[in-house]
Amino acid sequence: MPPAILIDELTKDYAIGFWRQRPYRALDRLSLDIESGEVFGFLGPNGAGKTTTLKLLMQLIFPTAGRAEILGRPVGDVAMRRRIGYLPENPSFYDYLTAEELMDYFGRLFGYAGADRRRRVAALLDRVGIDGASRRMQLRKFSKGMIQRVGIAQALLNDPEVVFLDEPMSGLDPIGRREVRSLILDLRDQGRTIVFSSHILADAEALCSRVAVIAGGQLAAEGRLTDILAFQIRGWELVVAELQPSALERIAPMIERSTEIAPHRYALEITLDHPPERIVTELAAAGATIVSLNPVRDTLEDFFVQQVAAVGQGARTTGAGDERRRARD
Questions:
Q1: Structural domain boundaries enclosing 243
Q2: Is residue 7 a contact partner of residue 30, using CB atoms and an 8 Å limit?
Q3: Strand partners, 314
Q4: pLDDT-based confidence at residue 271 (cuts at 50, 70, 90)
Q5: pTM exceeds 0.85 for this model
Q6: Strands 84-87 and 162-166: what pairing?
Q7: Cα separation of 296 and 238, whole Å?
Q8: Are 25 and 217 in contact (CB under 8 A)?
Q9: What distance separates the 2 farthest-apart alpha carbons in the chain?
Q10: How many CA atoms lie within 13 A of 180 on its CB side?
Q11: 86 and 165 co-located in one domain
Q12: Which of 242, 259, 241, 250 is nearest to 279 (CA)?
């Protein structure tokens, strides 16, 4: 089965400057395959090239080089575009329309008949948390988070097979973020392909089967989260309650650090040299209550920072080499 999205050597250059324009490479020979039915995270700092890539896939801008396909068709194929949904990074809608009117307008563009259109609009506004009173307010009165919810609803109006979400959690409160996470997982369970860009790495850890890290317009890393984070456990964090000083003193040689959270309640850091099972058994025998035991490992954020730093170091090294070559010339 071909991938849902194929990106091959996709490159985008811009001309910057006023008097003497020079090229600026926003995306540098990006190649990716995204499989059907997966949640794929597109991660990177601001200006890394995430939004540029999504705009290229949507043909809002056009590539300098390379190609891309969605659902086995070139990105410019009109029939294919009826099968995808897109949420831009900063959605901007007609201010004086209500949420219902805006969704009805988009439904008409897709050619849905009246009853079906009204049913779709109502169901999607319910799904993203726009209630009966709010959906009849003009959009200019909406908060950023509410606009984001409407944007997600319009991206799903046509039951797309592939959904592109550019920073979908932007502007949402904690409840909204949880609801959008649930929605993305529901879409995945329905067999849809979801691609979302973000710099909120906890969302990617909670949702994605695979991620790509983009830095400086280049692909810094790509793979399954289990591959990226595997075997990087640095130790264990054990939280215990009712820990008496005598018991803490006995296990002191086996722990790296202890932090008192409250009276007789501690967070203990255990190195890999000491099996946590032994310490847990000894503390339980001493009357302590085990609250939690969690591995301490590199997170996606740690990995992200390492990859961005590596790309930056490579760029500096290349730049230094160019300077030396010019000096020799």
A1: 233-297
A2: yes
A3: none
A4: confident
A5: no
A6: parallel
A7: 10
A8: yes
A9: 77
A10: 27
A11: yes
A12: 250
Q: Which helix (H) or strand (E) holds 119?
A: helix 114-127
**Left, alpha or beta for 27 (phi > 0: left; psi -120 to 50: alpha)?**
beta
H/E run at residue 6: strand 5-16
Q: For residues 90 and 217, state if they share a domain.
A: yes
Decide: residue 195, CB within 10 A, 0-12 exposed, 13-18 middle, 19+ buried. buried
Backbone angles phi, psi at 158, to 5 degrees: -95, 20
DSSP letter string, 48-108: SSHHHHHHHHHTSS--SEEEEEETTEETT-HHHHTTEEEE-SS----TTSBHHHHHHHHHH
Cα(81)–Cα(76) distance, rounded to whole angstroms? 8
Q: Do 205 and 237 sit in the same domain of this protein?
A: no
- pLDDT tens for 167-226 read 888 888 888 888 889 999 999 999 999 999 988 777 888 899 899 988 888 898 888 877
Which CATH number covers residue 260? 3.30.70.3100
Angle 59-90-124 from CA coordinates, rounded to 5° = 90
User: Burial, 48: exposed, middle or buried (Cβ in 10 Å; 0-12, 13-18, 19+)?
Assistant: buried
Single-letter code of the amino acid located at 150? V
Using N-to-C axis directions, what is the helix angle for 114-127 and 99-109, rounded to 10°? 130
Answer for the pair 193, 36: CB distance below 8 angstroms, yes or no: yes
Q: Is residue 321, in this structure, part of any structural domain at all?
A: no
Cα 48 to Cα 100: distance, rounded to the nearest angstrom: 35
Is there a contact between 154 and 106 (Cβ–Cβ < 8 Å)? yes
Whether 12 and 161 map to the same domain: the answer is: yes
